[in-house]
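We now fix the convention by which a protein and its fold are recorded. Here is one such record, which you should read through line by line:

>
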Amino acid sequence: MNKSRLSRELGKIQGFLKPKRSLRQYMTPPSIASELVWTAYMNEDIEGRIIFDLGCGTGMLMIGAALLGGAVTGFEIDPEAIKVAINNAMNLRVKTLVFQGDIDEVKGECDTVLMNPPFMVKGGKNDQVFLKKAFELCDRVYSIHTSQTREWIVKFAKENGFEAKRISTREFPLPKEFKHHTKVKSQQKIDLWYFYT
């Protein structure tokens, strides 16, 4: 498995059947997911490690980590997304566990957290909730956040005893899936992050 093949495999993953606006459900593009997961893999934070995917959606990051040898558990609040994630894992022939529940209910121990929390530009509430939980679970976190929260991200990580290393900045496509969208497709500038102690 290499990064290009990982991206191709992730391209087989089915997205949300009925995305929910309240949960900011957008499928992570395979190219972005593979970059985040591959970076964690090259840092020796995937293969043979216990991985948690917080807000796993339809399984993009979770399955990517499983393909690279991680023992992965996903956590997701939306039961419809969980059904799709399980089917995706079966289709790509990887073993994963998925638990339904709110982010506050996640418990356990892991070596690495992967996540693409719902983008929330104003106030950064989702970013804060997800990062706080991730920082409680382990000392290696890989995450995606809108670039508009960059300064806040670095400050929040430092306040919680973590260093924040920006892996890259990418354009995240936002297809017209909700009524409030006026364009057929738009872009959101996002940062891929590696947090460590």
Summary: The helical segments are 3-10, 30-42, 60-67, 79-91, 125-137, 150-159.
